[in-house]
Amino acid sequence: MGELTTTAKGTAVAAARQEDHQYLTFLLGGEMFAIGILNIKEIIEYGALTTVPMMPGFIRGVINLRGRVVPVIDLSARFGRDSTAINRRTCIVIIEVEADAEKHDVGIVVDAVSEVLEIPVSEIEPPPSFGAKIRADFISGMGKVAGKFVILLDVDKVLSIDEMVTLSHIGESSGLLAA
Questions:
Q1: Segments of the chain scoring below 70 in pLDDT
Q2: Domain ranges of the chain
Q3: Closest CA to 84 of 94, 96, 95, 72
Q4: 20 to 30 A Cα–Cα from 69, which one of 43, 45, 86, 122?
Q5: Are 39 and 96 in contact (CB under 8 A)?
């Protein structure tokens, strides 16, 4: 029975490892990025944003997601680039991030969602120390897919703790909580 339990645990660990290497890929300013699939809650059509005054430029506003206020970040602007130009393929990816032992939903605006890819560990390089167009601390690795690099983002580092505190209070201070 002990062997069966060990085997079952081993299988569960192997399955979890396999899931850890599945990524949602998306385009942002013509470049391919990816986020671990376990951080993704859903993908929704862009629209119905309410702007919130006095927020940093990369915060597009908030949306009402089934009665909850969810801040929406323009990921391109967050990376110091131009704001995302909205078109018919623009969407909001709802991700779950953790700050101060609490989980928060945050929407990120992307040009277009591509697909879910499984990237083997052997095809993931460590983040570069220079040369990328974004700060290297946001990058968990560089995945090689079909001879090209995909930038693997670390969602917990894309937003700093201070920014997460600001985001978590948007609904409370803006009076935008849905009834």
A1: 1-20, 130-136, 159-179
A2: 21-174
A3: 72
A4: 86
A5: yes
Whole-prediction pTM: 0.75
Please tell me the predicted confidence (pLDDT) of residue 130.
Answer: 61
DSSP state of 50: B
Bridge pairing between strands 59-65 and 68-74: antiparallel
Token code pair at residue 44: 């929704």
Q: Is 21-174 CATH 2.40.50.180?
A: yes
CA-based diameter of the chain, in Å? 61
Torsion over CA: 68, 79, 149, 90 (sign): positive
Q: What is the pLDDT of residues 123-154, one digit of tens each?
A: 998 887 765 555 567 888 999 988 889 999 98
Asked whether the beta carbons of 65 and 94 are under 8 A apart, the reply is yes
